[in-house]
Structures are given as C-alpha cells and as structure tokens.
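2024-03-11 09:14:02 INFO worker-7 job=invfold-0412 stage=load source=structure_tokens
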C-alpha cells in the first residue's frame, strides 16, 4: 500500500474568492522562513502545527468541494509559505492534477527545496508571487533575509510556462508613492507570462496575533493603507 507523505496545515478556507480565479479551496500551510514586517499570519511561521494530514487526506478534503470549484476554480496553497514543505506540497499537487483540479500556489518565492522546485512548478497552473521589495536593502529590512533565494525563484519561473500573478503590499511611509510604482513597473518587465499585477493595501488585522504570541510588531504606529489611494497607485501599473 502506498504511504502518503504527511505535513502540517494551518487552516482551510472553503470559498476563497481572491486567491486565484473563481471559487477556490485555500489550504494555508504551516511554516515560513521570512519575517515580513507586515505579515498578518505570524501563527503560520512555525513549521509544526496541531493539524498533521497526509497528502491524500488533503486532496480528499479538496475533492469534497468539487461542485463549487469545478466551474473554473480550483485549489490555492498559501500560508505561511507553501514551498516550505516542498515534498509534501509536490505530492499533493500531483494528486490534484491527477484528479483534474486546477492548482495555484501563493508564494513569496522562498523556502523551497531547490531539487524539487522545477517539478513543483510543473504541477502548478498558476503562481501568485508576492514581491516584498525590489531592492536588496529594502527586502532585507522588510523580510529579515537576503533576496538571493527570491532571485533564484524568479530565474526558475522565467524558464517555465506557469501563468503568473504578481502582488505587492503597499505600506504607508514605505512604498505608497508614485516613484515606487514607476520602479516597480521597470522591475516587473523581467517576468514573462504576467497575467495580473495587484497592489494590496496594508492592514493591521494581524496585530492581535502578535500580542498573543508575544512577538514585537515592527510596524507599530503605521496606519492601514488608504484603499482609494492604493487603487489610484494601481492605475499607474504597466504590464
Ligand atoms: S512570506 Fe507570507 S507568511 Fe511569510 S512572513 Fe511574509 S507575509 Fe508572513
């Protein structure tokens, strides 16, 4: 009998409408090496959680929602960083493709196994890639890590044919200005197969989690991003 890999899941959303096309099951996976200052899911950082499932159990769960997701929807793996559990994710993706389910990963392009990345992308229909910053110094300031791993991911994704959505969180006083968007326009020229670029307004809904986990919140005092201003900036995007 086949032994299925087991991994850690944070939570599941069954009627996701924003993380990929149409209605989707969103699987929030556990674990992330980055420490983004604006992260609203610090409870996913740890690799281990109470919910340990096998790849087959995850796919069985997704299949239950088939009537909702088969009209152009599918499953999106988010987190945390879904690539952090690379071999577990790969096995789930293979089973999903076998079952004819559209697959998407919502990733920061880090935490992956270099050995498995190419195969993971082979079984992924859509990649939603979060751009944290476009320059090394700012990237380090925001995430606490070097941009090297992300740069390798960019190289790899450009060698593949996955459809790509790019996302950037807009934070007041950090990147909420036209000059940044013009630089972003230059930066995104390096990606092929870009279908969509979205600016996400920074919000403070995760602050309570930091208090509970006794983690210092680094953006203390910064107001949520004005949604209208964010939409105005989005109009300046070119891709
Ligand atoms: S990559 Fe995502 S989960 Fe990881 S710290 Fe950044 S925002 Fe949080």
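2024-03-11 09:14:09 INFO worker-7 stage=emit residues=239
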């Amino acid at each position: 009998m086949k032994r299925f890999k087991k991994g850690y899941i944070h939570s599941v959303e069954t009627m996701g409408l924003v993380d990929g096309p149409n209605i989707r099951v969103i699987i929030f996976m556990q674990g992330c090496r980055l420490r983004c200052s604006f992260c609203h899911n610090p409870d996913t950082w740890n690799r281990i959680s109470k919910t340990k499932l096998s790849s087959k159990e995850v796919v069985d769960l997704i299949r239950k929602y088939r009537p909702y997701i088969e009209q152009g929807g599918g499953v999106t793996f988010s987190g945390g960083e879904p690539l952090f559990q690379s071999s577990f994710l790969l096995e789930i993706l293979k089973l999903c493709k076998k079952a004819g389910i559209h697959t998407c990963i919502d990733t920061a392009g880090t935490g992956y196994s270099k050995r498995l990345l190419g195969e993971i992308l082979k079984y992924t229909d859509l990649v939603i890639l979060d751009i944290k910053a476009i320059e090394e110094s700012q990237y380090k300031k925001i995430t606490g890590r070097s941009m090297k791993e992300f740069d390798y991911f960019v190289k790899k994704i450009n060698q593949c044919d996955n459809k790509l959505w790019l996302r950037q969180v807009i934070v007041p006083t950090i990147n909420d200005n036209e000059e940044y968007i013009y630089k972003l326009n230059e930066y995104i020229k390096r990606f092929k197969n870009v279908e969509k670029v979205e600016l996400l307004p920074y919000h403070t809904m995760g602050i309570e989690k930091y208090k509970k986990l006794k983690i210092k919140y680094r953006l203390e005092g910064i107001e949520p991003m004005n949604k209208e201003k964010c939409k105005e900036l989005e109009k300046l995007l070119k891709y």
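2024-03-11 09:14:09 INFO worker-7 stage=report msg="The first strand starts at residue 6 and ends at 16."
2024-03-11 09:14:10 INFO worker-7 job finished
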